Automatic annotation (TrEMBL):
One term of GO molecular function: trans-2-decenoyl-acyl-carrier-protein isomerase activity
Name recorded for this polypeptide: 3-hydroxydecanoyl-[acyl-carrier-protein] dehydratase
Claim: Isomerase is one of the keywords in the record: yes
HAMAP family membership: FabA
CDD domains per UniProt: FabA
A GO BP entry: unsaturated fatty acid biosynthetic process
Reactions mediated catalytically: (3R)-hydroxydecanoyl-[ACP] = (2E)-decenoyl-[ACP] + H2O; a (3R)-hydroxyacyl-[ACP] = a (2E)-enoyl-[ACP] + H2O; (2E)-decenoyl-[ACP] = (3Z)-decenoyl-[ACP]
Pathway it works in: Lipid metabolism; fatty acid biosynthesis
Species per Swiss-Prot/TrEMBL record: Rhizobium vallis
Subunit organization: Homodimer.
Known function: Necessary for the introduction of cis unsaturation into fatty acids. Catalyzes the dehydration of (3R)-3-hydroxydecanoyl-ACP to E-(2)-decenoyl-ACP and then its isomerization to Z-(3)-decenoyl-ACP. Can catalyze the dehydratase reaction for beta-hydroxyacyl-ACPs with saturated chain lengths up to 16:0, being most active on intermediate chain length.
């Protein structure tokens, strides 16, 4: 097992979004405002719920975040799909961090449960991604379970998040 960096700052995540962290044509994060992560606090190739690796990350919620005024007028909440996208973003990041090559793409998820909402008064989102399997071949595929906490309370859970890295440059 290679020793790899175990946490990443916002500036390093922005470098990843520009294609500078894992090299041209490899896994990238989206740029703001679609970047749903501000820092990765822990990442490991071992451990986690299935002992196949895990990632923990955070996002600082601001009352003036772009999605609040438009979702929904008079009842501002963060769209649940943005939290789910954050989980996919982190799953793909993990594959690039492992040194796997290819462009990332969210492929699917199993069951998703929403038990609460992120509102403008929320201060901190925490993500947890626990890997079940990483397949390496022409298509690199990561399968993981994920959760999202808002100010310490688990409000989203997703089973079988699937993200792939394709070496096909047209993907």
């Amino acid at each position: 097992m290679t020793t790899r960096q175990s946490s990443f700052s916002y500036e390093e995540l922005i470098a990843c979004a520009h294609g500078e962290l894992f090299g041209p044509g490899n896994a990238q994060l989206p740029l703001p405002p679609m970047l749903m992560v501000h820092r990765i606090t822990e990442i490991s190739e071992t451990g986690g719920a299935f002992d196949k690796g895990y990632l923990r990350a955070e996002y600082d919620v601001r009352p003036d975040d772009w999605y609040f005024p438009c979702h929904f007028e008079g009842n501002p909440i963060m769209p649940g799909c943005l939290g789910l996208d954050g989980m996919w973003q982190l799953t793909g990041f993990f594959l690039g961090w492992l040194g796997e090559e290819g462009r990332g793409m969210a492929l699917s998820t199993g069951e998703v449960k929403f038990k609460g909402m992120v509102r403008p008064h929320t201060k901190l989102i925490e993500y947890g991604i626990d890997f079940k399997r990483v397949m390496r071949g022409r298509l690199v595929l990561g399968t993981a379970d994920g959760w999202l906490k808002a100010d310490g309370e688990t409000i989203y859970q997703a089973a079988d998040l699937r993200v792939g890295l394709s070496k096909d440059k047209t993907a």
